[in-house]
Amino acid sequence: MSTHETKQAKRTVKLGSTGPEVFPLGLGCMGMSGMYGKTDDAESIRTIQAAIERGVTLIDTGDFYGMGHNEMLVGRAIEGRRDKVQLSVKFGALRGPDGSFNGNDTRPIAVKNFIAYSLKRLGVEAIDIYRPARLDPSVPIEDTIGAIADLVKAGYVRHIGLSEVGVETIRRAHKVHPIVDLQIEYSIASRGPEAGIFPVLAELGISATLYGVFSRGLLTGSKPTEAGDWRAHQPRFAGENGAKNEDSVNALQRFAHERGMTPGQVALAWVLARQPALVPVVGAKTRAQLDDVLGALARPLSKDDLVALESVVKISGDRYDPAQMKHLDSERR
């Protein structure tokens, strides 16, 4: 690790006005449970442990990633290291035995049921940040946050977060209990939160953890090739959009090559430069990928770099298919 990277590694970012101090990058573990093709549990565990050794503190998972597989994996990886990490857990998504997604359930009684299983799978007594994965349209957000607030009082949860919700829901939730961060997709390909969501977060003293920094591998040149890789049906990878986006990806690769960086480092450095007070969550599945993304901390982009990059990277297509976009509270205007 270079001297500059060491200095960066010592820096922390506070999640909201009431949340914990965390390393400036988080590790997202969803990809370790088969969402993007084959995985290797042993390598996944080594990757999580290597991240912790390198100073990463925020580990992000969901109880529905691999139908509990991801939480059990994280639990094995952090055994004996619990005091070095903050666990961010999403809940509420309903899965079928065939892997299907069957809506969301954030009723208070369901919240308490979900966390009971998460605590067991993770092997911990408390979860640092607990959040509904999506808004449940049949349950007022006040009821869901109130139930998590009860878990805070009982000592099972330390902080409350949100995921993929819009400004009205953020305000309503924050009135019930302080929210430390909103998890939202953000990258050079997905800049929607800049217009309305980020200003409201700043006003309320709420941070954000930013996922999709690589636009599910699109920006790094990754393509869905294996059965089970759900990206094959997503708008940015398929059809006319997929063909158009190859030009932007090639331009980003040239930009990276000219600066002695990898495409992943450029995509991450862009987010760090645009939102220095927020925390990107990167989905490294291997130690090699982890080394790559951590290298971005030592290679900040200048304002001129940002302008140059944004002039050549123009991504076509929505971030999810139409049915999913319709149900995203964060996309409501």
Explain the overall architecture.
This protein is an alpha/beta fold and 333 residues long. The chain has one domain (3-331): TIM Barrel (Alpha-Beta Barrel). Helix content is 40%, strand content 16%. The chain has 12 helices and 12 strands. The strands form 3 sheets. It has an 8-stranded parallel beta barrel with strand order 3-4-5-8-9-10-11-12, surrounded by 6 helices. A two-stranded antiparallel sheet has the order 1-2. The chain has a two-stranded antiparallel sheet with strand order 6-7. The longest helix has 20 residues, at 239-258. It is globular, with a radius of gyration of 19 Å. Residues 24-312 form the NADP-dependent oxidoreductase domain. InterPro entries: Aldo-Keto_reductase, NAD(P)_OxRdtase_dom_sf, NADP_OxRdtase_dom. GO terms for molecular function: oxidoreductase activity. One of its GO terms (cellular component) is cytoplasm. Keywords: Oxidoreductase.
